Amino acid sequence: MVPEPPPLPPGLAMDGETIDEAEESTHIASFEPLEKIRSSYDIVAERYANELADDMVARPIERGMFLAFSELVQKLGAGIVGEVGCGPAHIAKHLSTLGLRVVGIDISVAMIEQARKKFPEGELFVASMFELPVPTAAWLGAVSIYATLHCNAADRMRSFKEIHRVVRAGGYFLHSFYVSAPDQPEGSIYHLQKWFGFAVDLPTYFVGIEDGAAEMDRAGFDVMAALVREPMQSNELPTRRCYMLGKRR
């Protein structure tokens, strides 16, 4: 059983409400889209946390993007950065070592349970990226690393606009997405049905770089930088991926 979360800190609570974890389950739900994402990640959470998570912050290119993001945010002064779709909090923990106060949010209860093990001093909560329990303009910036992989264009925009709401004007937003892969061109969808030997139900969307920039612009962010890289290690998916940094208008 997942322990009761601590009280929501300033910058996270909204209207005195708390996040209810009691009704979560680990079977694949039949609802669209968040329930399938939630239940699939509940199933793989422990394996993901132990076998994949730390590789991301070990890669020098990713570390460089996180460092650039942290330096830009710190110039805005003291405040909170949100990680939307934080998973087991490997990135939130890394950003904290760069001097940021990070609040992690994920839809998967099991992922947040893993996050509390990996980053016990972190501020970590179960919530939807479509309805963040955060006051308007409360964050200096946000990161969303592969958190919208399983969202179609309409749901990506819904998430980006919600992030736009909670990030202050002049704040920064770093997100990442898959661009293409062998037999998966830009704009295509791959349906992931087996992961770590478990049955999952995860449509995975490949987004062109220009399309990704246009989505960020429509959500209210000026694109400041985009880094595109190819697979660099044999144990990572053979996908071209993009890290895109925006500044909130």
What is this structure's SSE topology?
Layout: H1 34-51, H2 53-58, H3 60-74, E1 80-84, H4 90-97, E2 101-106, H5 109-118, E3 123-126, E4 139-145, H6 153-166, E5 167-180, E6 189-195, E7 198-205, H7 209-218, E8 221-229, E9 240-248
Parallel strand pairs: 1-2, 1-4, 2-3, 4-5
Antiparallel strand pairs: 5-9, 6-7, 8-9
Helix pairs in contact: 1-5
Outline the structure in words.
- With 249 residues, the protein is α/β, with parallel strands linked by helices.
- It has a single domain (34-248), classed as Vaccinia Virus protein VP39 (Rossmann fold, 3-Layer(aba) Sandwich).
- The protein is 33% helix and 28% strand.
- It has helices at residues 34-51, 53-58, 60-74, 90-97, 109-118, 153-166, 209-218, and strands at residues 80-84, 101-106, 123-126, 139-145, 167-180, 189-195, 198-205, 221-229, 240-248.
- The strands form 2 sheets. The protein has a 7-stranded mixed β-sheet with strand order 3-2-1-4-5-9-8, sandwiched between helices.
- The model is unreliable at 1-31 (pLDDT under 50).
Helix content: 25-40%
Global morphology: globular
- Estimate what percentage of residues fall within beta strands: 25-35%
- Number of domains as seen in the coordinates: 1
The rounded distance between the terminal residues' Cα atoms is 42 Å
Count of distinct strands: 9
Named CATH architecture: 3-Layer(aba) Sandwich
CATH superfamily: Vaccinia Virus protein VP39
The CATH class label is Alpha Beta
